[in-house]
Amino acid sequence: MSTGTPLPHDSAHLHVTGQARYLDDIPCPANTLHLAFGLSTEARGQITELDLAPVRQSPGVVAVLTAADLPHANDASPAATPEPVLAEGAVHYIGQPIFLVVATSHRAARVAARKARISYATEEPIITLDQALAANSRFEGGPVTWARGDVEAALAGAAHVVSGTFEMGGQEHFYLEGQAALALPGEHGISVHCSTQHPTEIQHKVAHALGLSQHDVRVEMRRMGGGFGGKESQGNHLAIACAVAAQLTGRPCKMRYDRDDDMTITGKRHDFRITYRLGADAEGRLVAADFVHFARCGWSPDLSMPVCDRAMLHADSSYFVPALRVESHRLRTNTQSNTAYRGFGGPQGLLGMERAMEHLAHSMGIEPAELRRRNFYPATAPHQSTHYGQEVDDCILHALVEDLQKSNNYATRKAEIAAWNSTNRTLKRGIALSPVKFGISFTLTHLNQAGALVQLYADGSVLLNHGGTEMGQGLHRKVCQVAARVFGIDDAAVRISATDTSKVPNTSATAASSGADLNGMAVQNACETIRARLAEFMAAREGCAAHEVAFAGGKVNAAGRDWAFTEVAQAAYEARISLSSTGFYATPKIRWDRVAGQGRPFYYFAYGAAITEVVIDTLTGENRILRTDILHDAGTSLNPALDIGQIEGGYVQGAGWLTTEELVWDGKGRLTTHAPSTYKIPACSDRPRVFNVALWDAPNREETIFRSKAVGEPPFMLGISAFQALNAACAACGPHWPDLQAPATPEAVLAAVARARGEA
Amino acid sequence: MEISFLLNGETRVVQVAQPTMSVLDWLRAEGLTGAKEGCNEGDCGACTVMVSDAHGTRTLNACLLMLPQLAGKALRTIEGISGPGGALHPVQRAMIDHHGSQCGFCTPGFVVSMAAAHKNGRTDHDDLLAGNLCRCTGYAPIIRAAKAAEAEPVPAWMTEPAFQSAQISSGGRGIASAGQTAPAFLPETTDELANWYEAHPEAVLIAGATDVGLWVTKQLRDLPEVAFLSQCKDLAQITETAEGYEIGAGVTIAALRAWAEGPHPALAGLLRRFASEQVRQAATIGGNIANGSPIGDGPPALIAMGARLTLRRGDARRTIALEDFFLDYRKQDRLPGEFVESVILPKSAPDLACFKLSKRFDQDISAVCGCFNFTLKGSKIESARVAFGGMAGVPKRASAFEAALIGQPFTEAAFTAALPALAQDFTPMSDMRASACYRMQAAQAMALRYVRARLGEPVDVLEVEA
User: Fold this and answer.
1) Nearest chain B Cα distance for residue A545, angstroms
2) Cis peptide before B263 (omega within 30 of 0)
3) Cβ separation A176–B44 shorter than 8 A
4) Are B125 and B141 in contact (CB under 8 A)?
5) From A83, A358, A713, A759, the catalytic residue
6) How many CB pairs under 8 A join A and B?
């Protein structure tokens, strides 16, 4: 059986030999032109003078375009509200594209782009959350509030209540391959290559920008060098720019952002401030929770509204709270327009609750993991529902967490650490457990669909195509394994081709962890259609029932006799049987009323838990992760090696978000951490010294593709355990609540140590 | 300028029209697109290549390597790591078997770093891979792969005879050839360099190009005249003298670190955290000093050791205390046409300790770097040399703090009492790396760490195990 086998990534051999081709590696025609944006150097104001003569005179420049030169729509927005590709009079952040340089080389374009003479009538920029609140600068008019129960009454009657304010920073995606696009003008329409998670949206945006129909625009995408949500909408600008320039010049046009430009132009994970009040009864059972989310959205809506929605949907984390209220402020600032990033707001919402739980445990003197256990959604009937009305009938956290705690001696280690801390003055260790419950499905219900095209050739080889994109997660390998299993053939007989809008139309972004769930089912559907034709053909030929024809081990068994699958394919071809099929899938059972905040937005939940141990230096706040143990729920894994890869990588990325990765803007609104020299993603030695990852091996209760579960985003939130462990180490320094803020840089840890000691 | 070098085993003779062109840009224009541009500033390692010469094999960032630096060397790219007929190198096989690639964009750089370590018999993977960033895997499977490949023999194709044949082409050393945008000079001796630089004081001297490279890739500057020091072998010597050791300005940080393991282990420990392997193999101690950065990690340690600097202009030399070289932010006591020729270190500094503080442990720039060197007479402090980076516009001694402790007992109480003096020595600033307040706290904390460590208390997070 192909699924369940730990096969390597479908491009592993190409990766390790340097032959895997990314956008910038595609050989370009000799007359290809290269593009660069000229960027705003002011965060807010009107352009009063735009002198582009020095840009036009710069060596190698072929054309310079402004908003006025765009032939059709000047819109890169993934949302209903337009977002100009090139500024139209007003500028909204430092780094906003104002004009487009078309030149004979990448460097010539970059050099020229810095030569414009621009005058601005500047206004005071709105950079921070406080500035946005003071100016009432926000989207959607006012906050969005979803609630269940009488929260105020429940808090008033609670035996214990904690309250606080928690700041968590944003996060740069730092996909290793920067944004890039290439447009090739054709006889009819245009062909676009783009490093994107959403080829269909690129197709739409390019069509609008060129005044073409969608069938005139073909978008191909073989692989991305990382995405993490940062290539869901942020590639639109480059693709549109290339397409417009290619149409105007009649020449191929390519654009790739230099790393500093990429970090300066594109949106990031939303930073949040969350104020919380959490109440429990005398036994530590939660009775009420009240959260206010303040999200820095940046200058345009982009995907901020659904991001903030998902934060609200994860405000309960893994716990049943009878009365829960969450209020969400989507604040507009003169900074990069924040966007999708692995978890899509979920991590922020979930962390708000996890932080409050840690605070409650500290306040009540209950062991934090025990407090959590008491409040998990029930494992058995009667089930409880979330604050948005979805019954949680698949909660496996009780058993999963118990298993994890037992297998790595949580209680013993915790006692040993306390003893160690009592004899060490300068260094302190901390340990913490953090659970994850993450909802799987796009909250915009119509996106939960997928298409596939499967072609069986007469020699028995299979070529398949689907709407999902490969960004490193191993989607293509998993989907090939699905096809191999349905046909009962070897994985080597199945190949996948580049994602291509001319093969599978109207696709959704590869996002929301949904890639394998949606596209795997669509591919299965197409393969089953072809297999059914083969079965009928063989049944008729051999005189048995179609359902008696079996496909396994590269053989087809009919009427007690085996034929090679390859022979059957050839015979079916000669019998004039159609050997290609589309496939389709739409996720069942989901419904969601966003305005009311009610429904079943998620088909199911994915679960997991992590225990992390850290050490801090109480003199400087420096710290290391010593050990991490993870037990994660991937359902019946389609490919355990790829799933463990997602879990290890997700954990480290999540821990990075909350430790070393700090975005800093100066008062003028300039991002000062715009390169890896100043923005520090985890390096090799930052991974846990001891790192144990295991899969919780049990089938999904819903009928997903071979009962697997989505695994892209959920493990990211396991990194929260590292942050909680740091907070616990700070708490070992004194009797007070350390109130560690994120990211836990050495500076933040030292401030928390001082608070624990009552010195601040 | 014409240079020749070996590229994946084949001799290449290249007319260099633009001397500051990066090897990465050149390779990719040649169609060798395995090396990737991830950051174009030497921080991500996606462009890592392997360079060999008589001194051995090392990894370098191709984005910060300028073509003339390759003269006479053997370059191996990811395209040259596999063997005849596409046979996989053991680290390639292991990376597949252990699922070490996800998106694959960083993978060629990792594979080159791992193959170089494998060839050199090195197993300190965390250190050697600190300059290769991966955003997908969390590094665990990459380390599993590196360990799995350790026991495999070095493939025959990786141990071809050392590159001998390619020599710098005649007439290629001093020369603005037709069509060349900027004159470039490739001196072979320090005397040649000294004479030329005296006559061309506006020129830019390029040793490792790890800083000057950014002027080209990020500031998009066209440099006027340049000289590449990579062929000045006599500038890269370490010589023992009566008073100490004379370290040539062209000694790389990697070479200095390896050498310092013996006489100056505290310096070696600090240099372990200096940038990354790829940068340390290119960057030189002379460049680190001469560029005058307030946050370079070499000078604070060297000042605390009492290092002296030899400056040379033409045939004239002068020697000054290193701390006197740094006048103000990015301003040094250096005359036009004068260059750093060597730095002179004491024979030993057993009481030296160096502490680097940054957001990320590896491959980060210091928020604060503090170096302490106290000698005792009996139980009292006899002499003190304390220097910090990141606390002022230049690397600077903490004179008031030193003075407050001379003659005092070597105790935590004495250090605690002296801590306020650091506020007389420094008025640090806030930036993206740390706030001014935290910098001062950290500087004081380092002083306490020094005294606690010497008095035997555990203070190092790296020595704690789960």
Assistant:
1) 43
2) no
3) yes
4) no
5) A713
6) 269
Cβ contact A718:A654 at 8 Å: yes
A601: helix, strand or coil: coil
A105 touches chain B (CB under 8 A): no
Beta strands B368-377 and B352-357, pairing class: antiparallel
What six digits make up the tokens of A33?
């032109």
Please report, for residues A33, A477, B107, the alpha-carbon distance to residue A30 in angstroms, rounded to integers and kept in the order given.
9, 34, 28
Q: What is the residue-wise DSSP string for A618-629? A: TTT--EEEEEEE
Indicate the SS3 state at residue B61.
strand
Inspect the interface and report whether the beta carbons of A12 and B442 lie closer than 8 Å: no
How many C-beta atoms lie closer than 10 Å to residue A389's C-beta? 16
- Cβ–Cβ gap B104/A619 under 8 Å: no
> Among B384, B377, B429, which Cα is nearest to B403's?
B384
CB contacts of B434 in chain A (<8 Å) are 747
User: Hey, what amino acid is at A317?
Assistant: S
- pLDDT of A226 above 60: yes
Nearest Cα to Cα of residue B107 among B45, B23, B30: B45
Cβ within 8 Å of residue A657, ≥6 positions away? A169, A171, A269, A347, A716, A719, A742, A743
What distance in Å separates residue B438's CA from the closest CA in chain A? 6
Reported as a single tens digit per residue, the pLDDT across A387-431 is: 999 999 999 999 999 999 999 999 999 999 999 999 999 999 999
- The residues that bridge with A616 in the sheet, in sequence order, are A428, A623
Q: How many CA atoms lie within 13 A of B41 on its CB side?
A: 19
Is residue B339 within 8 A of residue B249, CB to CB? The reply is: yes
| Nearest Cα residue to A243 out of A35, A416, A45, A492 | A35
| Separation between Cα atoms, residue A38 and residue A720, nearest integer Å | 38
- Mean pLDDT for all residues in chain A: 98
The confidence band for A11, taking pLDDT boundaries of 50, 70 and 90, is very high
CA A580, CA A576: separation in Å to the nearest integer? 12
Catalytic residue status for A713: yes
Partners of B126 on chain A (C-beta within 8 Å) are 684-685
Under 8 Å between Cβ of A176 and B132: no
User: Mind listing the pLDDT tens digit for each residue in B97-130?
Assistant: 999 999 999 999 999 999 999 999 999 999 999 9
Convert the pLDDT of each residue in A168-181 to its tens digit: 999 999 999 999 99
Q: Which residues of B63-102 are buried (b: 16+ CB within 10 A; e: fewer)?
A: bbbbbbbbbbbbbbbbbbbbeeeeebbbbbbbbbbbbbbb
Tokens of A741: 């803020």
- Answer yes or no: do B38 and A176 touch at CB < 8 A: yes
Closest approach of B90 to chain A, Cα-based (Å): 11
Q: Is the ipTM of this complex over 0.95?
A: yes
* Contact residues for B296 (Cβ-Cβ < 8 A; gap 6+): B288, B289, B389, B395
Residues in chain B where the model's pLDDT stays below 50: 164-172, 176-178
Task: Please state the rounded mean pLDDT for residues A424-445.
Answer: 97
Give me the helices (H) in A211-258, please: 236-249
What's the CA gap between A267 and A471, in Å, rounded? 18
CA–CA gap between residue B419 and residue A619 (Å, rounded): 13
A610-622 pLDDT tens trace: 999 999 999 999 9
User: Which member of B220, B359, B464 has the closest CB to residue A746?
Assistant: B359
* pTM to 2 decimal places: 0.98
Amino acid B170: pLDDT: 35
Q: Output the six-digit token pair for A121.
A: 């009538």
CA A584 to chain centre: 24
Write the DSSP string, B131-195. T---SSS-SHHHHHHHHHHHTSPPPGGGGPPPP-S--PPTT-SEE--TT-SS-EE--SSHHHHHH
